[in-house]
Predict the structure of Aldehyde dehydrogenase.
Amino acid sequence: MESTTMRRRFDSVEASAMVSDLRVTFDSGKTRSYEWRASQLKALTKLTEENEQAIVQALNSDLSKCETEAYIQEIAMLKNSCKGALKELKRWMTSEKVKTSISTFPSTAEIVSEPLGVVLIISAWNYPFLLSLEPIIGAIAAGNAVVLKPSEVAPATSSLLAKLLGEYLDNSCIRVVEGAVDETSALLQQKWDKIFYTGNGRVARIVMAAAAKHLTPVVLELGGKSPAVVDSNIDLKVATRRIIAGKWCCNNGQACISPDYIITTKDYAPKLVDALKTELEKFYGKNPLESKDLSRIVNSNHFGRLTKLLDDEKLSGKIVFGGEKDESKLMISPTILLDVPRNSLMMREEIFGPLLPIITVDKLEESFDVINSGTKPLAAYLFTTNNKLKEQFVMNISAGGLVINDTALHLAINTLPFGGVGESGIGAYHGKFSFDAFSHKKAVLYRSFFGDAAIRYPPYTNTKMRLLKALIGGGLLGIIRALFGLS
Ligand code: NAD
């Protein structure tokens, strides 16, 4: 898209006109039918299937993302979600019959899922294809009109999304607005029926404040410092490979659910470091900066941010593996730091890159206090064979999601909600949770004109009161007693 023309043109006047247009289409009822929703989900699948190479190229241009990661972590995930939504759509749309109570007898009741209206999706740069389209699946499935604002930090994918959604989807209901802060601010001034934001907590506060002006509900998909606790009774090789898979095999650590830091015991740390070194060398060779399987750092701002974390004087002598950088290629190698002080910069903010600090404790149980002393993370991982510890971890650690003996994989399970808690986010999506995130659950009670009980109406008497009390809480015996004046 001609981004400079777009940037000058797209202000709040144009944003307002666009939302009005979409509202007219939404009000026409077009997006509500099963046929429209299914047709758009099919079109999204077709878009993905017919443009795999272009998507891979855009992700490579934005992040040097390798084809395997682009395919498995973005393209295949999206196709899978579309397929799942299409398979379940009729069931999701069917209203749910629920029980009624004796106090409304005779009656029936149901929960009807209705679309919210016109919704805004603001996405982030690290999985720019998936994070833009996965929420759109939910918005379409639930029958909404949608505006997508992809991240300007991944410009190739942003412009590809604008082109492809323009070509494949129904533009009377689904639009893309490219741009950065100005364009997003213009969008945020409008009244939306839901705002779904993926990104960092600072901007999330701006989004939520803008939404509050119109009482617009939000989903905020944020990040945080996701810990991995490593016990000593494990299959070290498998655990190590799985930690690497969630960290460096996910966009070189630029993933919201990558392990941010490790906690292990002082005694076990040297073994863990050795195993990580061995496996990392097997995966990325002796010179990881040359590896085609590692993404680059997205831009020089983030390269500078990560360099600053590494240059913290509190960390001098702490690097036990890696630490190589090539600014011309925006590459940083997988880097492990041992015994990182908790007051270092690296331990005070989300790393979102290839640096992995290890914190050591005397007893593994202390790790719970370390985690709980910080803000609630998006994910938390535990490697152990100790069932008691697993149980304690599940009961005591509050995080968006937990995985025992692996990392990141919960994201791929569409029957699990994906979202944060506390500082790591509000709301969740994936599978049916995406449909629910973009639906209003409307309570509907049906009555007939039969059985109009006089006890509801004045004049109120003691007998009516006794009967009402029995009806509300007295059970069948209480009702019979009240009817016969026995209570
Ligand atoms: P980003 O820079 O792409 O920003 C996200 C969006 O916010 C973009 O569309 C951008 O245009 C918009 N934006 C930026 N500044 C704005 C402003 N002042 N006003 C309005 N809009 C503005 O992405 P990021 O924030 O660097 O993303 C990284 C963060 O996102 C990390 O914290 C990561 O953990 C989190 N994240 C979370 C998930 C998840 O699913 N929970 C997924 C990916 C990333």
Notes: The two ends are 77 Å apart (CA to CA).
